[in-house]
Amino acid sequence: MQKLKVWEDVLDETLDMQVAPELGDVINKTAHKIYTNSEEFFKRTYFTDSMLQILDRLINTLSGKERHNIFLIYSLFGGGKTHTILTIYHAINNPNSLVNDETLKDYTEDKKEKIKSIGLKLKDLQTQNIKILPIYGKGKLGQPSSPLNFGAYKVKTLWGYIGHCLGKYSIVENDDKNLTVPDIETLRELLKGNKVVFLVDEIVHYIDNLYNSGNEDDRRYAKNICKFFDTLSTALIGTDSIMILTLPMEKDGEKVEKGYNKEIVLSLHRAVERVGGAELYSPLRTEGISGGEIVEILKKRIFEKIDDDFKEKIIEKYREIYSNTEIFGRFEESLSKTYPFHPDYIATLRTIVERGGLQKTRDMVRITRIVIRSLLQEEDLPTLIMPYHINPKNEKLRGILFGRNQVFADYGGAVLDVDLSAEKFKRFSKPELAEIILRYIFLKTYPYDSPIPLEGFPKKDTLARAVYEINFFEKHALQLTDIINTINEIEKSSSFIYLIKKDGIFWFWRVANVSQMIESKKEELLTLNIVSVHKKLEEFVKKFAVEGRGLRTRRIENNISFFKKSNIVVSRDPQEFQDTEDYKLQILIRDDVDKSLLYRIIYQYGTGTRTYRNTITVCYADKSIDKLFEITARIMACDKVKGDIKAKYKSYGEEVVQIQTSMVRSIEEDTKAEFDEFVASVFKKVAYPKDNDVEIVNATPTSKSILENVYSALIEWGKIPKKLTFEGLEYYLNEVNITFNKPIMFSELKSIIRTNTKLPFITDDQLKEAIKEGVKDLKIGIERDGRILFKRIHQSLPNYDEAGVPLDDIKDTDIILPQIKALNKQINHILKEEKDEVVGNRYIKVWYEVYISEDESLPLRELVEETEDGFVVKPEFVDLVINGYIVRKTEEKIIGERNEFSLKLDRHNIEGKPGENVDVKVIITPLKGNDFEVNLEVDEGELDIDHGKVPYETTWHIKIPEAKKTYKIKAISEDGIVKTDKITLIPRTDIVEVHELSEDLKGGKLLEIRGIKSSDDLNIIPENLNVKVRGILIIENDEHFKADFNNLSLDVVKYIIEEIEGVLDHKAMLDVDIIFTEEIKIDDLIFEKLRCLNKKAVFKIKKC
């Protein structure tokens, strides 16, 4: 309503009842000046086509150009008849007001010229003897029982009144006294010398009163009035006089204004219509979506000025918005005709007035005045006057809309108060939008009082057009999509008692719909049969949570397999689970759960304590569960109400029964959908065992599944590891002082996890994958049925990184071995397979080598030493064997009749100081044949014996070189058979790597400590030593946290670890190395401090 100027009189509510003044009041000057002053009157008058046509013909008749003497203006009450009469009255009396600029503004050029032309022509006629003779049926016209006393005579009849007004009473005096109708000639004599314009309004009221008079003469006289108008109409033909007469009827005469005798109206109509030349005129056109001329009349009556430029800007905005056909559909836009009114305002107002028994234009103006005043009181004015601006709760409007008919009184009472209450609107996500949508539906449909949908009742697209207003949507931060969403909410809502919905059509009906029956039955169930509601709710929640099926949704997206279906219990009262290793879930349908109850469920079994205490989770409501009971009771009520519909609604017809039945089904389906949508958000409290107590957390609903909410909460709070690595498993177990430093059966490990509440919930699959990873990373091994599953034994040198044997599964009977134990057990198994022998005529040799690189390998047997428990890898070679490739080597050949022998060295890798003499034993052994000679040759060094008959032994003397070198030895038999071998000599730097500090290492220089795994072990290192730290830190809780260190000082690393552990409330797993920037002598003090790290780290030491 910006850039609009409202007439001052619109602001005066005392004028609401004077929107259509009486003809008599205007003539007597007792009406408001806007009706009595011609210029003010025309400023607020829209010249309809009918008015201009009547005025044009009236002028032609008065000027003698044609003889159109009788004009009949018809409409029901409030249709503009009197206003048309007043327009003619003012136009003849003051034609100058028709050419006034204020009168002519806002019309099209053609219409301006037409009005101006009429004004000028009437002005020219002013010199002629034109006499306006108003005949106002509600005024004093004289009648037999109450004549008008003019002193010299008394007027008893209408013709006597006309004779008096024309100053020719004597011509009709006898007929007046005798109550007889003057003949045609008498009336023509009466009119002679005058151009009379008869303005006859409300004459039916005059006749009707006479018919109902208690005076016999009045009643007799009444019968002659229609005859008089017949005679007068005939007398007017061919004269310069005119009669304009209003008739309170529809054009076809089928409908007469309420309160009048239909026969009187039709008799009068027939009397004047019989005369040739009498024509019927409607005061205005009302056809079309923009309301014809009604909207123009409203504009003129309400607004003094409408800014055309601003109008175009607003219309352009709406056209752009309306281009969204997905929201608004396709329709004929008519804003340019109706602005500043929304087209639906005009359409809705017409429906209310025409179907509500109101006074057409009169009440349309009256209602609009009230609407405009109400809008002007608001802080933010709208860009358009919308249909929902007609607020039926406005007390002034309420009386107009509902006060004239008992049927509509029901709508203005119960329907309005119950279904359009503020409490109802609050239930929607956009309450302000819901209110205007529902108000529009109400205004648009209540006048029809229909139990079934009718053409033109609101649908989604028409609702969108009827409620979208730019400023309203901006004020409440609404989006176009909110319209459809809110309509969908309304469609699903079962809280309305009088709103009916069918196939996307909405309307109100004053007879309560099935919603009321359902609500009553629901309350009955909640009050008198709550036990059955409890049982039904348990059934619904079980179906939802356990079976993964909603009441309406066929399948609930639920990929959680953590809890087996058989281990999920849904009930109101706690149920005791069997004491097994399985993870279990109790869903309690209640909101009054305390910690003591949770403790009993999780920890107690029978009269004692549960063995598998780390297995039970409890989920329960975090807020009032009453809404779930209400939803459940409503679903049950729908089922019960279905059987009662026909009895209640059959009297209204089968279609109504079907509509109400459909509504029950719709309410039932929507309520089931509401259950599916809502239930997961109720069960958000999750309780689980922790540190021998009960931990209670809130789940954040991330899905529509209760199980997913529970699972997500356990993940979020770290009770279930999101991803379990072997390092993570080590960390968790370290927290409860369990390590993989000694063998443990897989089933025992599972049992520890299920019994210790300090540990997380770990599934069998998670645990197996972590163990597989540990084997793959060669951190642990598996002993299964006497076999050792640890390092891979290759048949040839592979082209991929070394890793443990791949495992398809982990069995309960599998024994998890520590790294060194798994290695030594595996080595013992494979060394038993080594051989060097002749079988028949075949030479067979099997041995194992450990490849350090592609070009360098060492015989496995030389890397081990024999103990009471069998072979063990020498400490200094442990890392080499674990990280190297163990390759099974074979040699096999046919030796025929030749002699065969073997060449063996007692060692192949020797460390020593450069220049140091070392001795290697050389053994020549016959494999086939005896007493044959074998010669020996070496690249470097000397042999005690370089030839001899087999078998024999000799010693190879050689010096350690300055750099690492490999030397060959060759053996050649007298048959030409050649055998070779080699030895690698490594100059020793006196640096060793050991897993334990031993007494013989005292006095040595400490260079590095590698592989520290925990912050506790790191804290053993004294801070006063000059060291740098490198490595990684990992924390496994709800997420995987990792940090890298590179050459940081020890105190900084300790600080960082302490802070991170504090923030994340978890102990860190480490894999760090300590590099001493200065050589540290291993004295007694250092020895005692660091020996705590024996078997937990690797010490790199330079011997002295």
Would you mind describing this structure in some detail?
- There is one protein chain.
- The chain has 1104 residues and is α+β, with helices and mostly antiparallel strands.
- The protein folds into six domains: 37-281, P-loop containing nucleotide triphosphate hydrolases (Rossmann fold, 3-Layer(aba) Sandwich); 294-512, no CATH class; 520-698, no CATH class; 727-842 and 852-884, no CATH class; 895-987, Immunoglobulin-like; 991-1102, no CATH class.
- It is built from 41 helices and 44 strands.
- It has a six-stranded antiparallel beta sheet with strand order 39-44-40-43-41-42. Strands 3-6-7-2-8 form a five-stranded parallel beta sheet, sandwiched between helices.
- A hairpin with a 2-residue loop joins strand 27 (864-867) and strand 28 (870-873).
- Helix 18 (343-355) crosses helix 19, helix 18 packs across helix 23 (431-445) and helix 34 (726-735) crosses helix 36.
- The longest helix is centred in the middle third of the chain and has 29 residues, at 654-682.
- The two termini are 101 Å apart.
- It comes from Methanocaldococcus vulcanius (strain ATCC 700851 / DSM 12094 / M7) (Methanococcus vulcanius).
- This is ATPase (AAA+ superfamily)-like protein.
- It holds the Pfam family DUF499.
